[in-house]
Design a protein that fits this description.
It is a single chain. The protein is of the alpha+beta class. About 65% of the residues lie in helices and about 10% in strands. It folds into two domains: about 35 residues, no CATH class; about 35 residues. It has a two-stranded antiparallel sheet.
């Protein structure tokens, strides 16, 4: 997946306007911006949980439990080194 920085900035702008995230600059290095999800953002995620799980079942359900477990372990290992 390729993202251009302005696209990410616009996405964060929209999420911030809706009160779903909060951005803060690092004091030591002003180029660094931390993004945190707000309670409203967490509430939105909770409300979407059922729909997301349904989509995941539709997309990945054919793989079976063993293959899904293997996929999850691989994704977790990839995330650890990111």
């Amino acid at each position: 997946m390729i993202n251009r920085d302005p696209d990410i900035t616009r996405l964060l702008d929209r999420l911030e306007r809706r009160g779903l995230i909060q951005r803060t600059r690092e004091l030591k290095d002003r180029r660094v911006i931390k993004v945190r999800i707000t309670p409203a953002g967490l509430d939105l995620l909770k409300s979407l949980k059922g729909e997301v799980e349904g989509f995941q079942r539709q997309l990945l359900g054919h793989m079976g439990a063993e293959r899904l477990e293997r996929l999850m372990r691989l994704l977790e290992a990839a995330r650890e080194n990111a």
